[in-house]
Amino acid sequence: MRIVFYKWRMGLLFLLLLTGQTACSSPSAEVAAQEVQEPTETFTQRRVVVGADSLVRGRLLDRNDSVLVATGTLHLLKLPRKAPLDTLALAKLLGWGPPTVRQRIANALPYDNAPAGYPVNLRLTAAEAARVRKARKEWPTLVLSTQVGRRYTANAGAAVLGYPANEAQAFFKQAQRTKRGRFYKLRNGGVEGYYNGLLTGRVGYLHPLIDSAGNNRGSWATDTTFRQGQDLHLTIDTKLQAYAEQLMGNRKGYLVALDPKTGEILAYVSGPVYDPATLTAPDQAKVRSEMLFDENKPLLNRPAMLANPPGSVFKLVNAAVALQLGAITPTTGFKCDQTLIKCVHDHPRPGSLTVGLKYSCNPYFYQTMRNLIQRVPDSLVADTVAARHANLAEWRRYVRSFGLDSVLGVDIPREAPGFLPTPAYYDKVRKTRNWTYRSIYSLSVGQGEINMTGLQMANMTAIIANRGWYYPPHLVRGIGDNGPLPRFTQKRYTLIDSANFAALLPGMLGVMQRGGTAETSSLADVGITVAGKTGTVENGGDDDDDHAAFVGFAPADNPKIVVAVYLENAGFGATAAAPCAVMVMEKHLRGSIAPKRKRWEARVKHRARNGY
């Protein structure tokens, strides 16, 4: 009975479900569903560019707000390719003089003996272009055109200013053809390359979503705002930069001057020097070709990219570390024992650190470093090899706090880190762990495996001037209406106590005084006290002279300028590098060179022009 009732109930339920399905799928139900469905809307995604016509690349201005580089109109004169050219008449038209016309044309050709009719474009000033326009009827074969490009108002600061890569394509192709681009790392670009994004600015993009009626229905992507190209306010003093370049001229080397209180670079010279417009100008093809093959490598950005042994200027660092680690005291004296290492200066016995620095006594610093490396802690009495390894590692740790063996982070591309040897390095090179101090003593006089860049050498001197701290050197003090990049406002400290830096000052003052290695470069006659240190760097070549180095700051009691100079194959630091440094100091602090040094200045400039 229960089974029959259950079957009857399941059948009834199945019938009801079947009836419901039929009702849902009926035509009337489908029509009803279509009547309540929302109509499908069509939207259009658009992309609107904002500010493309008003975007201008930012300018470069010096620390006194003088415009150095700006985007403007360049006037180009295309010479006829077939008809003979009357250079005398053209010179009269442009107001150049026949030799100038011939030289300008020769510089525009990529190589000597270029075929007749090779296309030549000469840059003109606005006034010269106006003369050509007025003489169109007399000169129908001349073609005058204009283009937008970077205009340089000064002929100094090439290594600082750099170039936009898009305007240097002709140069890159020349370098590629001559296979010199890789060697020179030519895509350096200076501050133009480093700050390219900020200088260029950016257009804005709107992303409206438009309905079929033309109404804005929101955005289909995130909008971006228009940003005009930012001006860069450089730390460079144009007048000081131009003066320093006159002292460098065609010589190989570098000169870096900076404000120790801020890290702002006042002058940045890489020699041989050249006009900053050379690498992008359309009429400088031959000049660029000559620079690519020049054995003096003018395109190498020496202050940032070239690391060399610093020579005796490094004695300042070794002395500071030795004082900190207790290897010597300011009153420690040593015999000038030339059986240890040769000393080129004839001087009294160095009975203190001050005397050792004043006369740059090599045996004094040999023994200073020996005390540091060969000291044996109680825990390592039985293992002098381990003691030397530990001492060298400790020395290196303190020296690295000066910003050495690492990039300082200056705002210019391709900065080299330099090099400081490690114990593991000597294990590998000497092929034994049992190396002795005698095999590494060259570190005591800044030779051997130590390598420093010009920026590091200047920064090292700023640290001494500040008694142990520094701001990273930089070339841009303001971006638009703002200050420099944040990292350039962060003070950094070394591991050396300020008292140990103060102990170096009497010796650095002695260098510039009577009997000191740079006594002839004193500025005492104009009331400026200079603290300095000379260096003469052996280069290992029998036919080439040694390199000359000098570092210093002034005024000694309140430093406002630090200068580091390095002249390759120039001889003694006292006679070659020191004069350049102190004249830059005097120019910055006084604005002019005293009459007493005018003949000296003329001699330095003459040597600079002639490259020796």
From TrEMBL:
Main location (coarse class): membrane
Pfam family, one: PBP_dimer
This protein's UniProt keywords: Antibiotic resistance, Carboxypeptidase, Hydrolase, Membrane, Protease, Signal, Transferase
Classification via InterPro entries: Beta-lactam/transpept, Beta-lactam/transpept-like, PBP_dimer, PBP_dimer_sf, PCN-bd_Tpept
Organism whose genome encodes this protein: Hymenobacter lapidiphilus
Family (UniProt): Belongs to the class-D beta-lactamase family.
GO molecular function: beta-lactamase activity; carboxypeptidase activity; penicillin binding; transferase activity
Swiss-Prot/TrEMBL GO biological process terms: cell wall organization; response to antibiotic
SUPFAM superfamilies linked: beta-lactamase/transpeptidase-like, Penicillin binding protein dimerisation domain
Domain of life: Bacteria
GO terms under cellular component: plasma membrane
Catalytic activity: a beta-lactam + H2O = a substituted beta-amino acid
Penicillin-binding protein dimerisation domain sequence ranges: 57-215
PANTHER family linked: BETA-LACTAMASE YBXI-RELATED (PTHR30627:SF6), PEPTIDOGLYCAN D,D-TRANSPEPTIDASE (PTHR30627)
Region forming the signal peptide: 1-25
Domain Penicillin-binding protein transpeptidase: 253-585
Entry EC number(s): 3.5.2.6
Subcellular localization(s) per the UniProt record: Membrane
Protein name: beta-lactamase
